[in-house]
């Protein structure tokens, strides 16, 4: 990069930004600095006549003519198209932001609807699948097994609850597929989840969470592990008004129950 500043004759220290030759103070063709980029051009490179040079030698405040080097002149001619592109890009960004907001709102509405629907469901694991070929018999088997399991948890009649296996059928020796059980209400599902600790395997009943809820729970568990390994005590994940949170055990009141 050449020296910056007002138009002046090159000294032996200054070099032309184009040909990189050091300035010659004895040179009659004076050097000049671009008013835009401040690069210095030697007499061989700026292509100005002695009269033009005299104009540019006037002090900056006294003259209205601006000297631009070839690069800056070329950039100036591209300015209108650059500005147009900038305007187009600004419009595009605005459109994208609008679309993004719209998608985020749609996703939030979908998530809320999905959570509301899933709130009355439970997922039941480890119930062996019937080997019968008859679909009605398979359903009867699942229904009876689920009713038996839930009787051990709380007093809810789920004999008419809808239920179905999750995932495509697998080979006979594969682990049984989980069952999604649709109960009559959210309060029935909560009652089962709050009392599942009575089971010998409480993990065989879980809440029906959306992928986002599962992801958030995973994040909370990782955070909890970090806090415990950094020495924090008495912290755990509890459901407060249906939302999982990391809390200190001592701040929990009796009314806040674990799901
Ligand atoms: Zn030069
Ligand atoms: Zn320039």
From TrEMBL:
The cross-references to Gene3D superfamilies, in alphabetical order and at most eight, read: Zinc/RING finger domain, C3HC4 (zinc finger)
Report whether Coiled coil shows up as a keyword of the record.
yes
Keyword annotations = Coiled coil
Region described as Disordered: spans on this chain: 1-20
InterPro entries assigned to the protein according to its UniProt record, in alphabetical order: Znf_FYVE_PHD, Znf_RING/FYVE/PHD
- Coiled-coil region: 79-106
Q: What is this protein called?
A: B box-type domain-containing protein
